[in-house]
Amino acid sequence: MDSNKSKKIYKKVIESLVIKLVITMVFNIIAHYDPNILLHMVHHYLVSRYVNNAFLNWKWYPRAVHFQEKADMISSEITSLLRANLNIPAFEYVDPSQKNLGVGHKWKVFMIQIHGNMVNGNVQLTPGILETMLRVQTWNVFVAIFEPGCVVPLHNGPCKGLLTYHLPIQVPFSDKCYMIVKQGENNYKYKWIEDQGVLYDDFYPNTIVNESPDRLVLLYVNVKRNMKDSLDQYINNFSLGLMSKHQSVIDACKRAFIGK
Question: pTM of the full predicted structure?
Answer without folding.
Answer: 0.88
